[in-house]
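Continuing the series of single-chain predictions for the mutant panel. This is the parent chain; the variants come on the following pages.
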Amino acid sequence: MRFPPALFLPLQLAALLAAGTREAPVSAPRSLVWGPGLQAAAVLPVRYFYLQAVSAQGQNLTRSAPGQTLFKVLVKSLSPKEVVRIHVPKPLDRNDGTFLVRYRLYDTVHKGLKIEVLYGDEHVAQSPYILKGPVYHEYCECPQQDPQAWQKTLSCQTNEPQIEEDFTSFPSINLQQMLNEVPKRFGDERGAIVHYTILNNHIYRRSLGKYTDFRMFSDEILLSLARKVHLPDLEFYINLGDWPLEHRKVNETPGPIPIISWCGSLDSRDVILPTYDITHSTLEAMRGVTNDLLSVQGNTGPPWSNKTEKAFFRGRDSREERLELVQMSKENPQLLDAGITGYFFFQEKEKELGKAKLMGFFDFFKYKYQVNVDGTVAAYRFPYLLLGDSLVLKQDSPYYEHFYRALIPWKHYVPIKRNLSDLLEKVKWARENDEEAKKIAKEGQLMARDLLQPHRLYCYYYRVLQQYAKRQSSKPEIRDGMELVPHLDDNISICQCHRKRPSKEEL
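Parent structure:
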């Protein structure tokens, strides 16, 4: 079933969250179901959709009844002859009347899928949902040849402000300049650069430098994209290190070159992609990782009123302000609980400050306020903290990730100074203005739920590659020393692609 773009985004439903009561009975027919997991063509590692509990009076409920949810979901092949492996965990209760449903296919379903959404024994909304086959699993190599059709299926954004800003410095991309400069400037022995060429939807690479092990993350997402949509031909360099690299100004001679990085800064010109962390969490959800952008939404701790009224932090010693945070915590334990879980940069401080025990990430949300302090660059936990049900106190920072531009201080999070001098004051403010703090936490959560949906990450990656390819002034080539990056050999799951592939002459 095809849903209009407005129903694709949970943020659009924020305005519909009318006041519901814990006791209000759920109406299965009036409840809402929407999301990309109800479309056969929306191929994602984990397919997902959303439920909104609605009362018999038509009110969107904003709290779940105590105990286990009565919502259940069954996903099975349309054909009894087609035996497929499908992992369907129970719906994740997001504690606001909405639920997140996930399922992961381990085989391609040729006839199609039947998705039954039930509340007790009653069908919810338009259930059962029929997805006519083929419905491909993640490792099926069957790219959509029409990128526009693929983007329409995923309801990709027509405008991404960060991408537009990043490419302002690069109206044209001179490949020859990059070939001459990048190996010399950034590809020495201590470098962390990978040179990629995408040609005819095949991915080739060569590593420049000693610290390129993280290429497994860039390989992983590029291959995943190439299995889903035909990528433009292009040649580019990805920086696998923490810090952005290109600090030349636009008016300098020579000018900046478009190195692609996972983190940006106010004084650099790198083109930014979603971090390796949230990329990997998207690809390996319900398989290789446990704390991912979807699962965290159903593990946000106790209700707001039952959370501990303190600011909380746990992390490594990767920045001096983190040490100051721990000292502040020792002096103000009634306001702040902060600890260092591992010492690497400031080992001499361990005896003085002590070492905190490791905690499960979901346990962070037992606290009302989360302190987000930079690591070596931007703290990559920030998106996960926003998705929780706590107020995020974010350190002012020159570093940013791909989605920061959409966030507004005092609307989606509370800003704190770089030196943390106003942190305790902001914690006191939050305690004295509980309703306002709760509102900011909710606004941040809703925005993160929208921005960080897995399908939007795929859209973002594709748009960066598309904009880059448009600006190349010469044709990309497979250079000496490059090797083909192979797709995983999936012998267990058979995949027969129904799409007509271009002939070699067309390529």
